[in-house]
Structures are given as C-alpha cells and as structure tokens.
Automatic annotation (TrEMBL), chains A, B, C, D:
This is Adenosylhomocysteinase. SUPFAM superfamilies: Formate/glycerate dehydrogenase catalytic domain-like (SSF52283), NAD(P)-binding Rossmann-fold domains (SSF51735). Its main location: cytoplasm. GO terms for cellular component: cytoplasm. One of its GO terms (biological process) is L-homocysteine biosynthetic process. It comes from Ignisphaera cupida.
Length: 414, 414, 414, 414
C-alpha cells in the first residue's frame, strides 16, 4: 500500500469530517449504493488530481465502491485537509497530498499518480492532463478517457483538441447544467454573502450593495443581497443583461456613478480592472470591497496599493487602506475570491452535484470507451438530467413525466 | 389611395389610441426619429400581416418614417381595432382590415397586399409567406426578404427551408433575446395575473397557486404570483427545471398531488392534457383554472365538459362547472390564453421590444439583400443588443463598456 | 313585506353574484352555519346602512340565519348593485336601495330603516348613528348597541362619546386587527396594482414606482409593486417609518427628488397636497398619477387643473393633462381611490374578514347588552382571534396551542 | 486613576477594534460630535454595567465627550473583550472587567462602580439597579435616574415600581421602536442565518426551514431564510400572527406536521418546549436544530439528551445526537442563541441604534431630573424619532416634513 500524507493519526478526525460531508451529498450517496451493487468500475484504475477535501473524499469512496482503485494528488498545494487525507490513506486510497507542499512536491505527486498507469484520469485545472500529454505519452495513450472540473482546464484541453494532439476523450464536467448553473448561482451567491458577514459582521439590511456583472454569479449575489434587505445596484457591459437586471427590479448604472453610492462593492465579471483608482477616489468613506469573480484583478489591488498612504489589517480578512483624503476603504480577503478566502467556499451540497457528474461521467467513459473519440465532450444530457433526478429523489420530490400522447404532441409542433 | 376599413370616421379615436401606445414604445420612437433622418427604407414597399392594433400602428408609422410604402392586412379576423385601422388609412397606409372579417375576406386581404409586389414582407403566423410561396411565386421571387413574428410561423418557414423551397431570406424575429425573454417572462408573467384579477377579483395573498411548467412563461408567472403573496407550487416534467424551481424556493410536486392543494391552477407548458379528469376530481371546491400556455388543450376543457353535470357563466370570463360530487370549478376565458382573453395581452412596452426588432430587421434586409441567402436567420446579435441599448437609453440608463485592455483580457482566457 | 329596489326581475342575476361572493367568504360561511344552529339573533331587529353589494348580501344572509330581521339602506347613493338588492328583497330583506338615489331619497331610506325600531344598528360612515341621535332619540334610547365599519364613522362616534351624548354602546369594527391589517395591507396593496393595470395596461417590471406613505397601505403597495418587478421609492414624513422602509431595501427620499425619477406615483398618506404643482413641473413626460389613500386631495387635482393647458380622456379611467412645457401627465380615476374607481375595490375575501367581525360583534352586543356601557368599544380581542381562527380553519390550516406549562412559563417572565 | 483589566498592553489592539465599530455606528458618531460641543453631561458621573465590547466602548466615549466621568463593569463574566477594556482604561475610563471573572469578582466589580456614587446608572439586565436598591440605598437615593437595556431588566424594574420601592426614574431603552424593531427583526434575522452558515456551511437554497414563532424575531428570520432561497414553514400559537404568515405567502402548520418536513428548525418564540421528544422522533435524518429565541429551553435539550444513544461534536458549534433509530440530529450552539454562540451577535449598526437611545436618554434624564418621577418610563417619542432621523442623516437620506396645512388637515380628521 503506497501513500504519503502528513499524519496518519489524524484519520479519525478526518473520518468525522467525511461523514458530515456525506450527510450533505445525497446524490453521491445514491450513486455510491448503485456502484456498490453493480461494480461498474471493477478493475479500473483512476488517477485524480483534486482538492483533497471532505467532499472529494466522498467522491473517492464512491468510485471505490464501484470497484475502482484510486490514486489521488492535490490540485493545489494549500488546499489539502490533512485529516481527510489521513482518513483516505487508511481506507486504502493511494493519496499523495499534504497541506503546504512545495512546488516540487506538488508536481512529484502528480507524476506519482500518473505513473500508476490509470485507465481514467480526473483533473481539476489540467495539470495532470498536461503532464500525461507532455511527459508520459506512453501512459496517456492507454488512458480510456478523462474528465475536467474547471473552466481553465477545459480551455487548455480545447486548445489541445484543436491542435489534434489530444490522446484520449475528455468529458468537460464543468459544462454540465447541474454543475455551473448551481454552483455559480446558488453556491457562490450564498457563500459570497457568507464571506462578507464572517469578515465584517456588518448589517446588510439598508445598505447599498453594488454588484458588478449580471452573469450567473452576479445574479446569485444580487438575489441574496436583496434577500438580506439590501438595495442592489448592478453594473454591466452587456446591454441585454443590463436590461434583464432592470426588469428584475434592480438599479443599473455605470460604475463611475455607482462608486459614489455604494456601501459594499462585489465584483463578479471575470474581467480585469472593474474597480480602479478613479472609482476608489469617488467612494464614500468606509466602503467595503469584495471580489467574487476571477482573481484579485477585478478590484484593482494594484491601484489600491499605489494610492493608499497606509494600510493595516483590521480584522481577519479585512485590510484597511487609507487614501490621501483620509478616506478609508476596506478590502476583503486581499481581493481574492471572498467566498473561498473569508468563508468556506462551496457547501457540500454544491460539490455533490458537481461530483455526481464526475462519478457518472467516469462510468460513462468506461462503458463507451470503444466509441468515444479523442475529443472534448460535454456531459451527456442524460447524465445531467440523471443528476437532477437523483437530487430531487434525495429530497423526496416526485415530478411528472410526459405521457406518450404528450410526447407526440410536443414533437408535432416543435 | 387604396384601403378598406370599417368606418373612417373612427380615425380620431384611433389616433388617440396610437398616441397612448407611442408614449409606451420609446424604442420604436428613437428608431422612428432615426428613420426620419436617414430614410433607409426609401422606395421600399412593405406588405405586412399583423394584428391591427395601436402598437402595430406605431411600427407602421416608423416604417413609413423611414420612407417605406406600407400595405397592411390583419393576422386574425377578430383582432383588428377598427379605430386604429381608420387612423392608419387616413395616414396613408394601404390597410385592408376590419374586425369580424369572414375567412374569405381574411384571405382576400392577404392576397391584396401580396399583389402589391412588396420588397419586404412582415408576417405573424406565416399565412402571407405561405400565400407568396404557393400562389404568387413570381412576386415572391422579387421579394428582398421577410420577417416572422411567431414560433409557429418560424416553424413553417424552417420546414420550407429544409425542403429548399424558400424563395427569400427570412429573419425569425421571434428568436431575438430581447423579444422572447421579455415577452414570455415579464409580459406574460404580469398579464396572466392581470387576467386572473380582472376575471375574478380574488385576493391572491395567502392562496396556493399551482403553476404547471417552469419555462420562461412559468417562471414569470411564479415570480409574480409570489410577488402578490401567494404560496406557489410548480409542476414540471424536466428534472433540471424542476430542480431550479426547488432551488428558487418553490415547492415542486406531481400534478396529482398539487391538484389536492391548489386554489388557483395556471398552465404554461405548451403541451396537451396537463390538467385532466383525474385532477379535476381531486381538486378542492371552488378552485380557479387558467391557461397561460398554448391553446385550450392544456387544461382539458374536453374532460371538464364531459364530467360536468352543469355549467354557467358567473362573471365575464368565468365559467362555473359543477361536478357530480357537487364541487364547483371555475374556468377562466374558456381555457384559452387568460392574458389575452380576460385582460389586454401584452402591454405596449413589450410589443415595443418585439417591433423594434422588426423595424431594425427590415432595415437589415434592405441593406444586406445582396449577401443574404434564402435561409431562415436569427436576428443578428447586434440588432438584439441595439434594441436593449435603445431601451436602456429610453429609460435614461447608461452602462459601462469594455476598455481595450478588458476586451483583450477576456479574449485571452475565454 | 316592505322594500324598495330598482327592478325585482334582476333577482336571479343578483343571486348568482351572491353565490360567487359566498364562495370567497368562508369565514362568514362558518358563522352562517353556526348562527343557523344556535339562532343567537332570534327576535332581534337589525337596521344596517352598508354598501349594497354582493358581499353585504352574504353578511345580511348570515344575520338572518341567526334569526334576525334585517332592514337595509345604502351607505352611498352610487354604490348599490341593483341585482343584489333585488335578490335580497326576494329573500325577505327590507331593503331600501337603488343605484342613483337622490340625496333626499338617500336620507329617506335611512329614516325608513331607523323607524323600524332596531335593536341593533350597523353603520358605514355614521349617517345612521347621526340620524338616530339627532332626529330619533326615542328610538335610539331603545337600541341595544351598534357597530361602525369606517374610520370616519368611529371618529364621529368618539366625538359623541366625549360629549357624553352617546345613547348606546358601539363596537368599532374598523379597529379589529383582522380588519385593518388585512384590508389595508393585503387588500388595498393588491387592488391598487389591479386598478393601475386595468386603467393603463402598462408593464410594471422595470418601472420606477414612487409610493408616498409607508403606513399599512403604503407598505402593501410597495410590496406588491416590487413583486411585479418595479424599483420602488418611498417618501415619508415620519423618520421611524422612513427608516423601516430603508431597512426593507427601499429607496427613501423627498418627493421633490422622487418627482424627477418616478414613472408611476401612488399616494397613500391620508393627507392633502402630497403631490402638487411644484412636483408636477419636475416630473418626466408621460408619468402616471394614482391615489390609494384618502380623497382626491393627495394628488392635488386642483393644482393639476390650474396649470394644465389642455385635458382629455385617453382611456377609461385615464385623463391626460398637458402642461405648458408640452409634457403629458396621466391621472387615474380623477385622483379618487384608484382601486375603487378603476378596479373593483376589495375582494370578497377581504370583506369576509371585516364582516365576520361585524356578525360576531352583533352577537356580542346581544349577549352583553346588560353590561355594555354607552361607549365606543374596540372589537374584543377574542372576536378578533376567533375571526383569524375561522379563516385559518377555512383554509384547512391547523396551528399549535399553548400547553399549560408553556402558558405558565410565559406568565412567569412577561 | 482606578481600573482593573486583564492586560493593558492589549490597548492598541483594542483601539483598532473600537475604530472599526465607530465606522459602523454613525448615529453615535453624530451624537458624539454634538456632545463634544455642548457638553451636556459636564460634571456627571455615570456607572454602567454593559457587555464590555467594542460597541460599548463607542457609547462610553460618547458619554465622555459629553463631559461625563464613566465607571464601567461587565454585564456578563464571559463577554468582556480584554483588548477593548484595556483601550478604555488607557482612555481614562474606570473599567473593572475582564473575561472569565468569577461570580464573586463579577459582583465586586458592580459594587465598585456603584460606590463611585453615580448620578446616572446604565444597566443591562438589572444587577446594578438591584444592587443599588438592596445594598446601597443611600447612594441610590442620590441617583438622578437610570436606563435599562433589556426586557428582563425592565421586568424587574416594573416589579419594583409596582411595589413603590423604586428610588429613581428609569428609562426603558429596550422599548424604543428604534431599538426592538431593528435589533429583533433586522439584527437577529441576519445574524441567525449567519450563525447557521458559520456552524454548518450548508446550502440554504432549496431547503425547508421551519421557523417557530412569527413575532419580530421570527419574521426577520423567515424573511432572510426566504431571501436565501429556502421554502419556509411557520408554526405559531396566535391565530392572528399565523394568518399574517399565511398572507405573507408562508406555509403554516402545527409543529407535529412541520417536524416531518423540515431540514432546518429555528425557534423564536420566547417559550419552553417548542421542539420536544415527540417532534425529534418524527424528524428526517440529518436535520439541523437552532434556537434564536430565549434560552436553551425552546429546543428541549433535556429531551434530546434523554433519548439520544450517543452524542459528539462534529464541527465547532455542531453537536450530533444519534437517536435509537439511528437517525442523526444536529444541534447548533448547544441550543443557546445561535447568533451569539455561533456568530458574533448583533452588528455594530444594530447596537448603534440601541446605544444612541441610551446616550440621548442619559442626557434627557440630566435635563429633566427635576420633573421625572420615580417610575419606569418609555423612551420619549422625540428621542426615538431623533435616533431614526440621525440614522437617516448618516445615510445621506432626506425625508419630507409636514407643512402647516398638512398638520392641520391631519388633526382635523384624526
């Protein structure tokens, strides 16, 4: 048995965490039961690069219940929960992950699990796919197929597909409706508010919240901020989305004007320089700045640093910048994703939907390996629907189904 | 000058109606001004089959401001507003429409405007397109292009495209985001509630409203019913939509169960037999039944008629059916579209968005007639965006635009 | 049998109306059944001045089921539904009411029913109470007690109480929680939106709605306007209410500023001159003005008339005023209560709550006539609670009740 | 200079905390400025028993700005923030408070500040008032007056008033509209959700949340839970409140039935035994139990302990109870107030409103000491209004005021 974790004695603590997650991942739980009976992954070796968290543990256990042997490395040197890693090691997972890996150790771990000669690879960001294609082509050639969890990873794989160098089929789990519609809108919507509350403990009711961007994430945040009693202002660059925001009852204006009004600013655009120097200068004293979009470039931390005359940590996750005018601005989580840095990121329920797509996609690859081409596929619609069905079932909700007559009627006019 | 209307002396009354509509169609108003200056339709003859309403009059005036000569017939024998038709005749439109046309008169009118040898044809339902393709091929061959307002019409045209018999390019105005997203969600959402209130004057707060279907229309209705204080139950056949409804805080269940709970039922599925005999039998005494979807087949009027022991009109738009058990059910607007039959259908603001797409699509065809193929096109994205922009402008709302750096950044990672 | 109505042949039509109302007045329905069994009003003569509508008919039938003999006159010369009056006459009610009474006929009718020597009087506005106290003191002296439906009537009676000239006890039905909290907030909230939609058919989503006053009525309207997708601005003179509006997520500002922003203005303050000349002059072209508060003095029709250069009816219930600047303002229902004038006022469900308080208060007076003093009483809390209980029961809703231990615990610390 | 704190070297850290609080207490900030100019508390000695937190520090500084000398002790042995206490000591406050006082030390501190011979006393819970009345009557006799922050304290003082043993006038700050309406509804509404999120990180959207009690607190929680996407069920014992909940669109039922449906239960009744053994036994596996009402008696922890076969801490603030059936229930914060135990209690904005009433009430007592009787007074309406006005002003919000004509009109009919 091979593995490398920080401290095996943390296993019991990790086990409790995994149990708590499992309670909130009912879809994987149903799949787990199904996999246990049908063993669809019997004899399959899977190498996975994922954040080594309690939710990932529930996915890994599901794959093992299906008969798979699992090798696991971390998708980020800082995100491993050492107690969970220990628990997985005890359960027989070949886990090579600990919090605080060096860059070298991080890549070594990926190399180790790649060399396990997996039939299936699961990746979160594309580093494992990249390693297989660049440094282990022999192994890659024998891979039945892979999945990818993130937008960035899918982007890298699409580039490889375009260059016709992809060595195995990949399913872009990121594109499942039951993933992105749920984690962006409901997941990030809630956890962004959560991050702001944990960081600041301010009262949201009566505040003016400016949300930059009215995509799925921005909508989720706007809805939740309104739900907490805020008056919400939207900024957008796309006129159709801007108009939707208006019709949804929100105020819409340029950031230049919103900058003068807002108490709390939240960016969710996926773009750079959404809030910059000239906006900071217009803001009221005491405003709060948070980013729920991409990286720490949406709120321009660079600009903030350049104009501030002083800076200090006020509370955990809150940095105060004093401008030359004496005005104070409060940046949360250093401008990084506020829901990850200041709260706990996605809840188990949200990861459940995403990982259910992973588990079913893995099975799909195994069962269709002979017909799949070396392409990047969307999650098949039937898997997407199945995940929604299982989620509804886990909630005890039954829905109608079309009768034969109804199906015919729909086909006749559509 | 040729036209045929019921009574020219109604023109003044019609003019007032048109003015009222114009006040609530600011996008067309801006386009009207633009067309007046630039005359992009100079020398263009347009034949249009549309409901002859005050909103259509505003579209026609806009086309004429652009330099066009307009021939107009009704798209439904019963929907013509005679005062509006009279006003248009006085303004120089070749209008052939009156309320209560016979079937023969209806088709004669279409024939008349087809024979005017139009450069552009505008249709609502496809009867004009059909006539040109079947009975006036010579004329059709010289048409620059056409537009189509409805799903049904687009469906017919796509069939013709598939059979390669389309004689000119057609733009499916129906598919513009600024049309279907707005009229379905915001337009029908409001007017369905309006129809129910006018028909019944019941208090919605505290009632259980069952909405069948969680597409754009169903969502709009659910949102508005909740906004009036109802407890809303959704029924759906698609698990992903059903799950969205759950995550939006609604109850979701089978119609068989909802039938026992609801006070008001509203169908919005586009399908047949959504509420049938076995549901009626489970319902509480006194429930209200309305359809906001397709035809009078969603709530099965046939089933209702077959099981009822008696039937009478209680109020305008309200028919009472007594079941053998003595229970009374109230059907609104005979099961036809409740917003059209019991209220006034779409408001001018909603038609404004749709007809702005019409006006700009007509201009687009004229300017691109040499490059357009004999196909069914979606409304070009730039027109769709333009309509949204003009709507925002008419509301005095300014939005941000991407800087060059932002545009590059987006392209770099997407 | 004595009565005076317009046309007895309308009775069948009236009967249908009354049935429809009864279906939506479940609380009175339960009381009706109870009264039928227990006959608490046996031998009691009741004279009532009320709007002669289908809902009043359901109250009258309930009183008769309890054993009462009922004499009925109209509380407004214009509000009588002649078909309902006819149906009541046929049922044996001494009804003296028809639409379009002269002032003299109106007071004659009141005189007639006063002279019937009632044990109990029910009044809506105070004219019957006033007549008894000023012109029929002998009769008044023998009255067991009375009720009063309106704020104005209660005001008049309190003045009489203060002067110690009240000749019988009166219960101020108007002050029941289950009356004013429900009809103001939920009733007027909905029917105001309804009135605006029927008058204008405009789309509310995306509009800026200015609500003057954040009392019960204003809150109801603000909630419903937001529920239809509007952006809502509140004006207030009371800082605590204004702050509540802010904390509820609304914008709050002076009317002077709101006047520049709003698309629709709705007054609900109970005061004069809320919107006046200087506000009209700041408004955007095309705004809509409606009053949901007191009389036609909230929106100053006087000012509007004085500054307008022209005026005309655009649609039923919509008057267009053109200002010297050419700007057009649209006043609904001549500035009178928009929910009454442009829609149908309160729904039967709302009147049900109010009239249930009437019926139970009448019974209460009969049963407590020996202990009640010549004062104005609030509706006893147990009646108020009972009405709520019956309403819940009619909806099939069961609630918890305190255990003995819980009751003791509450008493111990409160 | 006398004081007793844990560690004076924490003063700098405390100062940062106080600054952060001050930024979110704008009403006190305005009063601070006013007090600095007018010195209304010159020569006044104040003894205060309050939670020694950053918000209390802002109140104390305000009183000192007014010229007062302040003596401060903790109102709870565990709630003192030692860094804030240190900062206050450095600023010259006679503070006798540290986290982890013994019961004896707690009462010693109260004794110390009582013996400072205050002109004004501020209390939170009534221990200082009680001490003065029982053990320091001489001192009490010279007190100008006092204030009381809590319901419990007011209750104790009212009992003393009834027995005519009150030695000075007391203002019940707890009863100010700008206190209880805001902290209960907006404060506890938000912080309860916050506590649940911090404890569990579960997704609220799509969950069934059962709120027991529809008073101010319950309303606030219900609104926020709905705002986060939950389906909300209310239980109530008062039929009028229950009916309001129904009319607000919530489901209402008995706890016995809700117990079978809920995912998350939150009690807010102020009563005992709201959720007991028989409810636990009906619940689904995995439900979450939280209390936002009184003490740990609303959710019967006693019952839970008695039926559970095992119990363990799963996460900070989450205790898992396993029932004999194998079902697991998760109790948050041991059943104590979830917003205090699992989150940070009220935000500074909420305390701002409460403490502004304190500061203005203190001034009021000083200025009216000669006319006030030895009674328990409500906060004068003008102070309540003033707090709301200042809060609006701090937000840059201006509201209308009545004209002379409007004032007269109102008086004429009310």
């Amino acid at each position: 048995m091979s593995y490398k974790v920080k401290d095996l004695s943390l296993a019991d603590k990790g086990k409790v965490q995994i149990e708590w997650a499992r309670k909130h991942m009912p879809v994987l739980d149903i799949i787990h039961e199904e996999f246990s009976k049908e063993k669809p992954l019997k004899g399959i070796r899977i190498s996975a690069v994922l954040h080594v968290t309690k939710e990932t543990a529930v996915l890994v256990e599901t794959l093992m219940a299906g008969g798979a042997e699992v090798w696991l490395a971390a998708s980020n040197p800082l995100s491993t929960q050492d107690d969970v890693a220990a628990a997985l090691a005890v359960e027989g997972v070949h886990v090579f992950a600990w919090r605080g890996e060096t860059q070298e150790e991080y890549f070594d771990a990926i190399k180790t699990i790649a060399e396990a000669q997996p039939h299936i690879v699961i990746d979160d960001g594309g580093d494992l796919h990249a390693y297989l294609h660049s440094s282990a082509e022999e192994i890659a050639r024998k891979v039945f197929g892979g999945t990818e969890e993130t937008t960035t990873g899918v982007h890298r794989l699409k580039a490889m597909e375009k260059q016709k160098i992809l060595k195995y089929p990949v399913i872009a789990v990121n594109n499942a409706l039951t993933k992105f519609m749920f984690d962006n809108r409901y997941g990030t919507g809630q956890s962004t508010i959560d991050g702001i509350l944990r960081a600041t403990n301010i009262l949201i009711a009566g505040k003016i919240v400016v949300v930059a961007g009215y995509g799925w994430v921005g909508r989720g945040i706007a809805l939740r901020a309104r739900g907490m009693g805020a008056r919400v202002i939207i900024t957008e660059v796309d006129p159709i989305r801007a108009l939707e925001a208006v019709m949804d009852g929100f105020e819409v204006m340029k950031m230049d004007k919103a900058a003068e009004l807002g108490d709390i600013f939240i960016t969710a655009t996926g773009n750079i320089d959404v809030i910059t120097k000239r906006h900071f200068e217009k803001m009221k004293d005491g405003v709060i700045l948070a980013n729920a979009g991409h990286f720490d470039v949406e709120v321009s931390v660079r600009d903030l640093e350049s104009i501030a005359v002083s800076k200090r940590e006020i509370r955990n996750c809150v940095t105060e910048y004093v401008l030359p005018s004496g005005k104070r601005l409060y940046l949360l989580g250093k401008g990084r994703l506020v829901n990850l840095v200041c709260a706990e990121g996605h809840s188990s329920e949200v990861m459940d939907m995403s990982f259910a797509n992973q588990a079913l996609s893995v099975r799909y690859i195994v069962e269709n390996k002979d017909v799949l081409e070396k392409r990047v596929y969307d999650v098949p619609r039937e898997i997407d629907s199945r995940v929604a069905e299982l989620k509804l079932r886990s909630m005890g909700i039954e829905i109608d189904s079309l009768t034969e007559e109804q199906r015919r009627y729909l086909e006749s006019w559509k």
